[in-house]
Amino acid sequence: MVPDDQRPYAVLDIDATLSDTSRRIHYLERKPKDWDSFFAEAKNDAVLDEGLAVATTLAADHEIVYLTGRPERLRRDTLKWLKDNGFPEGTVYMRRNTDRRAGAQMKLDRLTKLSAERPIAVLVDDDIKVCAVAEKAGYTVMRADWGLDAETQPTLFEAQEKEGRT
């Protein structure tokens, strides 16, 4: 058995990968977008069963890292949501409250920092741009296609990439 401090990282996104954001996406379909309400409702998201299963399976042999585009001001609610819903323990990296970089850039920067510490076995994310950038950089990616779909629900993906909000 590999000691905990030597296990490779498994990096998991949260929104639309572990949590079902479908009940709050309507806040982003308005003009102007209602970001405060969108984020305030995050603590009420249902669990995506596939995401929980993947996280639980990966935790057996990997150090879990949650990498989310959620702003830092949601840390307390996010940690509570993960714990209350039975997700494995792990380090949570969040977007600084003022960070408006595209989700793909923000996450690639964090992956680069993490990979300097130890190997990253897999990134699990729903965002097709994040997945593409990570794969191009040489990371193994599992596309979380069980949540929102970019083709049928482009609002979240637009927010991630064009507005740097989640």
From TrEMBL:
Coiled coil: none annotated. Residues 11-145 form the Polynucleotide kinase PNKP phosphatase domain. It comes from the Bacteria. It holds the Pfam family HAD_PNKP. This is Polynucleotide kinase PNKP phosphatase domain-containing protein.
